[in-house]
Amino acid sequence: MQDPDSFTKRAASFGTNAVAYARHRPRYPDEAVEWVVGDHTRVLDLAAGTGKLTETLLEFGLEVTAVEPDDLMRAELIRLLPDVHARKGTAEEIPFPDASFDVVVTGQAFHWFDTPEALTEITRVLRPGGVFGALWNYDDVSVPWVAGLAELVGDAPHGEHTPRHERLGEASRETWRHSQRRTVESMLASLGTHSRMLVIEEAERVALFDKLRTYLWSRAETSQGEFERPIVTSGVKAVRV
Ligand SMILES: C[S@@+](CC[C@H](N)C(=O)[O-])C[C@H]1O[C@@H](n2cnc3c(N)ncnc32)[C@H](O)[C@@H]1O
Questions:
Q1: Are 170 and 225 in contact (CB under 8 A)?
Q2: Can you tell me which family this protein belongs to (predicted)?
Q3: Which of 26, 113, 198, 224 could form a disulfide with 180 if both were Cys (CB 3.0 to 4.6 A apart)?
């Protein structure tokens, strides 16, 4: 069980590095977004952050609304995607009437709000027959150099969160493999957008990044210029009954 103070601090940490977040976090694969959205149209991107998932939803020509509590993350989303309807709100208090959406989807965020209150809100704003989906990008630790890096980072993965609520049917899961083109420095910049890195003391952060940089320069896979960072996207979805 995580320390609740640290959990709250981490959940609210992302805005301090919003520009780097938008620049260095990976996208979501089109197939994963298609798997959640199906042939629906009105989509809420919940906890939209700087709009990484919103961007792909828009490319699909969907009617997209973004909800994000953090002012700095939302400001970056509005700067990058000025045409999106973006509102301040949380998963526990979604600022829309009942049955407003066909799909509620959330990227890299369900673990921050997997609570009965959030699922009651999510199913309230979904119309019956609509879909709730959550996606996560993970570094693919089945690849040895990635496993070595993850060990140095030392952060516990947030595990599999399954949406369970009386207004949701049984959840289904899927995974996809893709990658992000990186260099040592842009890989470090990606890692620097993770909540743990944003909440630790400066001295600890500097020491950890020194170790990570040394490691990446020591590996044949990552020290020759550009390389592919292998990513697994994991998805879970359930239909609003
Ligand atoms: C790791 S970021 C993911 C942002 C974006 N969805 C993406 O895929 O890049 C997590 C986001 O969840 C938001 N968040 C944290 N707790 C939340 C809550 N209870 N309700 C809604 N959003 C929340 C944070 O402000 C942050 O923007």
A1: no
A2: Belongs to the methyltransferase superfamily.
A3: 26
From atom 9 of ligand 1, which residue's Cα is the shortest distance away? 52
Q: Domains in the chain, please, with CATH?
A: 4-141+155-180+230-239 (3.40.50.150)
Three-state secondary structure call for residue 210: helix
What distance in angstroms lies between residue 27's CA and the mean position of ligand 1's atoms? Answer: 15
Looking from the CA of residue 25, the nearest atom of ligand 1 is 9
Distance from Cα 38 to the centre of ligand 1, integer Å: 23
Q: Please tell me the distance from the alpha carbon of residue 128 to that of residue 101, in angstroms, as a whole number.
A: 10
Looking up tokens 């490319």 gives: 59
Q: Could you report the per-residue pLDDT of 146-200, keeping only the tens digit for each?
A: 999 999 999 887 788 999 999 999 999 999 999 999 999 999 999 999 999 999 9
If phi > 0 it is left, if psi is from -120 to 50 it is alpha, else beta; for residue 207 that is alpha
Share of the chain above pLDDT 90, in %: 93
The predicted-structure confidence for 67-108, as pLDDT tens digits, reads as follows 999 999 999 999 999 999 999 999 999 999 999 999 999 999
